[in-house]
Structure formats: structure tokens, C-alpha cells
Amino acid sequence: MQLTRVDVYNITLGKVKIAKRVSSLTDETVRRYMLSQVYELVLASLLERHPWSFATKSAKLGKAEGDEQTFLPNSMYRYSWVYPHDCHKILAVGEEGEDSAMFFHRHLPCEVVMGAASARVIRTDHDRACIRYLSNAVPEAMWPAAFVQAMTWAMASEITRAENASDSDADYRMQQASVALEAARRADVQDSGGGYRVPGDWILSRTISFERVGGGAF
Q1: Dihedral sign (CA 74, 108, 133, 53)
Q2: What average pLDDT does range 48-73 have in this prediction?
């Protein structure tokens, strides 16, 4: 049986000793609503903590139509590329070869900005580019068991704090979340054979809002 988001919710409820379970993602209950909010926050937080191999994707970048001619007064780059819809964090921007192969032997300088269509674009000086990134849309069925533990303990810790539970319960679940995260990191590095190493600081891009000359925002 494949893991689902409902399973993640119910594993979390078990960790906070709540017997009643969630039956579907459309349950009209305060409990399900709370879990869905905590889920999004915790997932984003865990994706910031490690370049998880199971969530790493590589893709060729498509040109952002209309942005090459857009005048970005503070941008030092010439080409604009569509920001992948499921990209949580850029790990590297590489070169696409003539045979469509993707090369990440070095990270190309880039920036992430708001383009002409009020959507994020990646700016580079290369006319053929590809990206390696962390996806926030990997199905739960693809999560390693260690990551499931890290996720559900972290969710349990957040719920405990939100419900103003006893200090001992809060401290225990926070400690378990920390231990589970470290175990998941170690397992990820081991399972990936050492893992893909991002040069330097792996948070490689920043989002900047530029304004058109004359004042109007993109």
C-alpha cells in the first residue's frame, strides 16, 4: 500500500496521541484543516534543511517569452527562463549541450526575478540552460521512510506547540523531530552514495522585484 498525504496526517496524529483519524483530504474538520496548514509549513522547512536526493530534479529550461526584450534596469543578465512550477529551491543552473545533454560541472551565475507576466523567471547569460532543483511536489509514496519520520515528528511538534500542551510533551516531540531529521539526512547521504554536492552555499538564488522605468511594477 502506497503512502498518501492522509497517511502522513494520521501518523502525525498518532504521535500526538489523538485517537480520531482523518479519513480524506476533504474532511470538514478543524483537525484536518490544522494538519493541512502544518503540512505545508513543515514540508517547506524540511526542504530548506537539506538537498534531499529523492526531491532533486533536473530539467531543461524553457525561454520566458517576452522577457528577453523587457528592460530590467538592475539586471546584469541577458536571457530569461521559465521558473519550474514545482521548484522550491534552485541547486544549480547548468549548461545544455548541443545534443540536449545537461551539464552541472559548474554552477552558472544567475538570479531569480519577477518577469513581465508577474511570474518568476531565471536570468542568465547563457542561451541554452538547464536546472537542478528541489521539488515541492514529490508524491508521498516516493518519500523514504526516514523522511516520513522526520516529517511526521516535525508536524507533531508543531501541533503540540499550537495546542499549548505541557512543556514535557512539547520538549519530547521537539527532540524526536530533531533526531528524526538528523537520521533522515544521514540516510539520504548514504542512499545517494554521498549525494550531489552543491558548491558553496547551496541556497544559490534570490528573488528580486524590479520596477519598470517610469514606476510600474512587473
Answers
A1: negative
A2: 81
Matching residue, cell 547569460: 125
Q: Check whether 196 has a pLDDT greater than 80.
A: no
pLDDT at 67: 57
pLDDT digits (tens, 9 = 90+) for 83-122: 999 999 999 898 887 666 777 766 788 888 887 777 888 9
* Residue 157 phi, psi (nearest 5): -65, -45
Task: Classify residue 1 by burial, with Cβ atoms within 10 Å: 0-12, 13-18, 19+.
Answer: exposed
* SS3 annotation, 74-124: CCCCCEEEECCCCEEEEEEEEEECCCCCEECCCCCCCEEEECCCCCEEEEE
Residue 149 CA to residue 140 CA, distance in Å, equals: 12
DSSP-assigned letter for residue 57: E
- The contacts of residue 49 (CB under 8 Å, 6+ apart) are 181, 185
Q: Where are the domains of the chain?
A: 5-52+144-191, 56-137
